[in-house]
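Subject: sequence -> structure tokens, single chain

Hey, anyone have a minute? Need the predicted structure for the following. Not urgent.
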Amino acid sequence: MVIGYSISLWAFWLTDGNANPYSTTFLALVAILAVGFLGLAVRKLRPWLALATVALSFQVIAAPIDAVADSNGALSLFDLDRYVWGLNLTGWVQRTFSSGALTAAASVIYTALVPIVLSAALLLWRRHKSVFSRFVVAMVLTSALALATFVLMPTVPPWLGGAADNLVHDSGLGALTAFVVPDYFASFPSLHAAYTLTCAYFLLRLDRRLGLAATLAAGATVFSTMYLGQHYAVDLIGGAAYSLVPCILAERLLPGATVAAYLGPAERAPLL
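Reply:
Had a minute. Here:
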């Protein structure tokens, strides 16, 4: 799957007219292809290589999204969001809760997505390999569905559509947020919501206390993305759907018997 995916991205990159062997896109494509072949060679590394591929994909996918948006335009979900809630909910959240301290705190939470996902993955891997395997499957399915949506239906975030301000770089935490590049055409679904909810789902399967902490982190992340003007509420609901459906599918696609046959005897603990 990784190799086929990378070949399709290579084909787009070569026909896009912007091929540059020194670009970050080219380097990410090379890395994805290398990850695919390494996964074929080193079986035990495959789950971690799958997560690495997911992370690299979002560097590569920016070019197709931008090309589609430039050619066909990008959608705005502002009217849908306002119809559902009866008001500009994102703008209302910003105006109601606006403060320097909250902006700084929300920016820290917003930029902590990778550490949150990595911490959850390490906990699952150390504590329960079968749950970790399901987690990886769910993350890959979520990412594949989201990437396809971004390319087929690019959508603008609230700050770009004029519904809210972009507060990510207004936090006063320049060194922390300077590397954060807000999404231009990948608003729906929210992967901040999807990934943190996936972490919460599987940590709840592992340990209720860890699951509660992960759920609180997911809630804080969801609020932060809206408050900072990065997502509409409908984007967050979409992120939840793009998370929970793959989680359920992962449970069915990778039942306990299949995992037990793959893992060693010491790693066959039953699900909690």
